[in-house]
Amino acid sequence: MSQPFSVAQVFTGRAGKQVPVAETVRGFKEILEGKHDAVPEGDFYMNGGIDEVKPA
User: Fold this and answer.
1) CA-CA distance, 24 to 6, in Å (whole number)?
2) pLDDT tens digit string along 3-20?
């Protein structure tokens, strides 16, 4: 996963996102458990927490 950082906002034009450590750990745990194997790799790029990656 990646996350748009607030300090880079002036360069990228994307609003920065803050993801709490507990949320990050939960997301990585779900990925390691294979819960998101059907999600294309590109869908993880520049999102915040795993809930932004999951299909609506």
Assistant:
1) 17
2) 788 888 888 888 888 899
